[in-house]
Amino acid sequence: MTLTSPHSQTAQACLDQLSAGPGGLSPEEAASRLETYGPNRLPEAAGRSALVRFLSQFRNVLIYVLLGAAVVTALLQHWVDTAVILAVVAGNAMIGFLQEGKAEAAMAAIRSMLAPRAAVLRGGQRVSVDGTALVPGDVVLLEAGDKVPADLRLLQAHGLSAQEAILTGESVPADKSAAPVAEDAPLGDRRSMLWSGTLVTQGSGRGLVVATGTHTEIGRIGGLLSGVETLKTPLVEQMDHFARWLSLLIVLAAAILLAWGYFLGGHPFASLFMAVVGVAVAAIPEGLPAVTTITLAIGVRAMAQRHAIIRRLPAIEAIGSVSVICTDKTGTLTRNEMAVVSVETPDGVFEVQGDGYAPSGAIQPRGDLSQFARTAALCNDAALACKGGHWIVEGDPMEGALLAFAGKAAGGIDAGRLDVIPFDSRHRYMAVLAEAGGERITHVKGAPERVMRMCHGIDLPHWHDRAEAMAKRGLRVLALAMRHETGPEIDRDSLDGSLTFLGLAGLIDPPRPEAIEAVAECRAAGIRVKMITGDHAGTAAAIARQIGLENPHRVLTGADLDRLDDPQLAMEVVDCDVFARTSPEHKLRLVAALQARGLSVAMTGDGVNDAPALKRADAGIAMGLKGSEAAKEAADLVLADDNFASIAAAVREGRTVWDNLKKVISWTLPTSAGQALPIILALFLGLALPVTAVQVLWINLVSSVTLGLALAFEPSEPGTMARPPRRRDAPLLTGDLVWHIVLVGSLFVATVFGMFNYALARGYSLELAQTISVNTVVVLEIFHLFFIRNIYGTSLTWAAVKGTKVVWTVILAVTAAQFAVTYLPPLQMLLGTDAVPFADGLLIVAAGVVFFALTEIEKQIRLGLRVRPGKA
Ligand code: ATP
Predict the structure, then answer these.
(1) Is residue 604 in a domain?
(2) How much is the average pLDDT of 803-808?
(3) Which band of pLDDT confidence, cut at 50, 70 and 90, is reported for residue 870?
(4) Residue 561 in contact with residue 581, Cβ under 8 Å?
(5) How far apart are CA 150 and CA 63, in angstroms?
(6) Gap from CA of 431 to ligand 1 centroid (Å)
(7) CATH number at residue 520
(8) Which residues cross the membrane (predicted)?
(9) Are residues 85 and 21 in the same domain?
(10) For 14, 162, 363, 570, which has the most beta carbons within 10 A of its beta carbon?
(11) Are residues 350 and 203 in the same domain?
(12) Within this chain, do residues 574 and 662 fall inside the same structural domain, yes or no?
C-alpha cells in the first residue's frame, strides 16, 4: 500500500489508494495497520557504547599520574604499591563509568517524556494519539505551532504554511495548499505535502498520512528527532576546566616537591616518589567533574518528578537563579477548565448552570438562544466525548465549554464546514463558513472589542460596558457574530462592518489553588511574578487579584506597550505585574526590558509565535499539554502539567542543585587539601609521614568519591525558598570558599599531626600511629560532610543529624571499610596498618567532634555577622 508521488495526485485519489475516508480510519483498522507498518518512529541516535564510555574514564590527569606512578613503582619492583595503584585506577574508572551511566539513563528517561502527540480523526472522532501510533491512512488535524508527525498529503489547508528548513534548508516558511502539483516538482515545491519533522507556522489544515517512520523524507535522509541536549552545562565545563588546571598545577607542584626532597632533603628516591604520588592523588579533586554531572542528573530527575522536564541542561542553573517569572494566565495560573456561566444578547441576560462539560443544564430565564448556540457550536474546533459518565474535551477547553453550552441551549447542531479563518492571537477572532439546509452562514467568535468592531448596527459603548462588567467578575468574555454568505468561501475583505452581533458569552476559568500557593512561595523567595495574557484587561486584573500578584491594580495592555519605546518600557516594566491583550511579539519586548533592568527572566509560552521570547528568556518554559511543538522546541524546560506550581517547584529544585554543587565543591576542595597537606608538611620538615602513600590512595578510593557523592542527593535545605535569588553570574569559587579551604585544611593538619604525635608519644609503633592518622582523616571527612550539609543554617538539628539514606549508607560503608583495613590481617599487610585500641578509637571520634564544633562555631559567627547589618 505505498503511494507513488502523492503530491501530484488529487487528495481523493490518495484517500482511495490508502482505502481511507475523510473521517479517518476506524480504530480497529488503525491498530491492524500499526502491526503491518510498525511504529512511526525514527531510530534513536546511537548512544556511546559502554566500552567507549568506560575507556573515556581514563582520559584524565589523575589517571595519567597514577598510571605513570604504576610504571615507576613496577620498575622499582614495589609490586604491592603497583597493585594498589592499579586497583585505585580501576576503582576510579568504574565509579565514573557507573555514575555517567546513571546520568545518561536519567536523560534518556526524560527524552521519552517529551514524545509528541497528534490530533487525528479515528472513525470520524477527533482523538489525540501518540505520534508513534500514526499509520498510513490516518487523517491528522494540524494547526499553527504543530510539528508535522509524519509525511502528509494535504486534504484541506487554510492559510497554511510550514517551516521546512530541516529538509530543504529554506528558512522562509513555504505556503501549502491541497491542490496537486507537478510530479517532478522538487521537494521544496511540493505544496500539497507536509513533511514529517517540519513545523506548521500558520493556519490550519488536515492531512492524510502517506508515510511514517523511516519511510518519511526525514527518515530517508537519516535525520534525527531533536531531543534533550547532552550533559554539559557552562558550570560543568567550568568545573572540568578548573579541575584540569588544578590537576596540572598539582602535578607541577608535586614535581617540584620531588626534586626538592631528593636533591635538598636527601630522601631516598623510591619512598619519596611514592609519597609525592600520594600527595598528588590526595590533592587532585578527581571526583569533582563526575559528581557535578551526577548532581545535575539528580536535579533533572527531581524536576521531572515535579512535572518540569529539562530540555537543555543549562536551564537547571538558570531556573534556580530567576528573579522574575512571566507567566501565561490561561491553564497555568487558572485551571483551563472552562464553563459558560453568563450570556448576554440584545434579548437579555441569561445565567447558565451545569456541571463540567456535560451538555445538559438549565438556562435562566428561558429564551431563544438558538442562533447564538449555533454559532458557538459551529465556530469551533473542539469535540466533547463522554467517557465513563464523565464529559471530556478534545481540543481547546474554551471551545469545549461553548459546545457544552450549545448542547444546553439547542441540542445537537450539525453542518458542513466550507471554509475557516483559524484563530490567531494577533487578530483574536475565528470564523467558520458552514452550510446547513442550503443556508450558508459565516460564524464568528473572538475578543469582544475585535468582533464588535466588525459588526453593524450595534450600540458599541453599551456593549463595551457590558463586556467590561463581565470581565471585572473575572470572566473570560467572547463576542459572537454572524453573516449570510453566498460563495463557497469566506469573503475576507468584506468582513469588517458586515457582521450581525449575536451577543457576549462569559466563561469562568477558576484559579488553580496550588498556583495561589506557588505565587506566594515565589514572592517569599524574592521572585516577582508577572502575568502576560492575551485576555481582556479586566479579566486579567480580576484573576491577578485572586491569584495574589504583588500589584494587580496596574494593567498595561498591548496597545500601551506599543506606545512605549524601549527605555520607557524598561522603566515601567518592573512595577507592573499584569499585561493584558498582548500578542506574542510583546513577550519578546518584555523579556528584553526586564533583562535590561538586570533581572533574570523565566518566560512561559505555548504558541508558535512565543518561540523567540522563549529563546531570549534566561529560562524559556513551554507548556507540555497545550503548548505547540514549536514552543517546546524553543524552550529550555517543558511543564508536563502546564501548572504554575511546577515552575515554583522547578525553581526550588534549581536552587537545590546549585546549593548541592556548592556543597560538593565546598566538601571536596578543603578535604583534598586536608589530605595532602600533612604529607607535604612532613616532607618539608623532614618528619615521619603521618600517612603513607598507599594509605592516601586508599583514603581517596574509599572516601573521597563516595562521601562527596552523597552530597549530590541532598534535599533542599529549609528556607531554600525564603532567600532572595542568587545573582545569575554568581561564581561558585568565592572568597568564602577559599577561606573555608584554608580553615579546614589547617584543622586537618593540626588534628592529624596532633593524633599522630600523641600516638608516637605513647610509644606506639609507627604503623599504629599511621593507622590512627588514617582513621582520623576519614573521621574528619565524615564530620565535614555533616557540616557541609547545612551551609545556610545550623547543623545542630534533628533533621541535620538524621541525614538522608544515601548519607548514612555511604558512611556505614566507609566505616565498615575502615574497620576492615584496621583489623583484618591481610589488609593490614597490604596497607601497613595495625589494630587500633578501643580507647584510641574513641579519641579519634572525639577529635572529629571537636573539629565539627570548631567549624560550626565559625559558621554561626560568619552567618551572624552577615545577617546583622540589615536584612540580607
Ligand atoms: P493566555 O495568554 O493567558 O493563555 P489567552 O489564551 O486568553 O491567554 P490568547 O489565546 O492570545 O490568550 O487569546 C486572546 C483572546 O482571543 C481571548 O481572550 C479570547 O477573547 C480570544 N480567543 C482565544 N481563543 C479563541 C478562539 N479559539 N476563537 C476565538 N477567539 C479566541
Answers:
(1) yes
(2) 85
(3) very low
(4) no
(5) 48
(6) 14
(7) 3.40.50.1000
(8) 58-76, 82-98, 242-263, 269-302, 664-689, 695-716, 737-760, 772-792, 804-824, 836-854
(9) no
(10) 162
(11) no
(12) no
CB 177 within 8 A of CB 203: no
Report yes or no: 413 and 428 within 8 Å, Cβ to Cβ. Answer: no
Classify residue 719: in a domain, yes or no: yes
Residues 733-754: pLDDT tens digits?
788 888 998 999 999 999 999 9
Instruction: Judge contact between 636 and 318, C-beta under 8 A.
Output: yes
pLDDT of residue 79: 85
Atom of ligand 1 nearest to the CA of 333: 3
Average pLDDT, the chain: 88
C-alpha pair distances (Å), 470 with each of 72, 352, 520: 85, 14, 27
Last residue of one domain, picked from the residues 86, 112, 138: 112
Q: Domain limits at 455?
A: 339-508
Q: Give the whole-number percent of the chain exceeding pLDDT 90.
A: 47
Is the per-residue pLDDT at 812 higher than 90?
Answer: yes
Ligand 1 near 445 CB (within 6 A): yes
Whether 487 and 381 map to the same domain: the answer is yes
Query: What's the grid cell of residue 473?
Result: 467578575
Judgement on whether residues 633 and 702 belong to the same structural domain of the protein: no
Q: Average pLDDT in the 519-527 region?
A: 95
Q: Are residues 693 and 841 in the same domain?
A: yes
Residue 232: predicted pLDDT: 57
Domain identity same for 466 and 522: no
**pTM score, whole prediction:** 0.82
Banded model confidence at residue 339, pLDDT cuts 50, 70, 90: very high
- In total, how many domains does the chain have? 5
CATH code for the domain in which residue 352 is found? 3.40.1110.10
Provide the grid cell at 400. 469545549
- pLDDT recorded at residue 456: 93
Ligand 1 contact, 396 CB (< 6 A): yes
Mean pLDDT in residue range 790-804:
78
> Which of 455, 484, 508 lies at the terminal end of a domain, its last residue?
508
428 lines ligand 1 (CB under 6 A): yes
Q: Is residue 365 reached through a cis peptide bond, with omega within 30 degrees of 0 on the bond before it?
A: yes
Q: Which of 223, 240, 220, 222 is nearest to 231 (CA)?
A: 240
- 433: which strand partners? 419, 442
How many residues can be counted in the chain? 872
Record the cell numbers describing residue 307, joined without a space.
Answer: 512535572
Helix, strand, coil percentages in the chain from 3-state DSSP, rounded to 5: 50, 15, 30
Q: Which of 204, 533, 557 to mutate to test the pocket of ligand 1 (most atoms within 8 A of CB)?
A: 533
Q: Are residues 697 and 825 in the same domain?
A: yes
Question: For residue 235, is it within any domain?
Answer: no
Single out the residue of 40, 1, 4, 8 nearest to residue 154, CA to CA: 8
How confident is the model over 64-108, as pLDDT tens digits?
A: 878 888 898 899 888 877 887 888 788 778 877 877 777 777 767
Place 227 in a pLDDT band, splitting at 50, 70 and 90: very low
439-446 and 578-580 strand pairing: unpaired
Identify the pLDDT of residue 846.
96
Determine, yes or no, domain membership for 262: yes
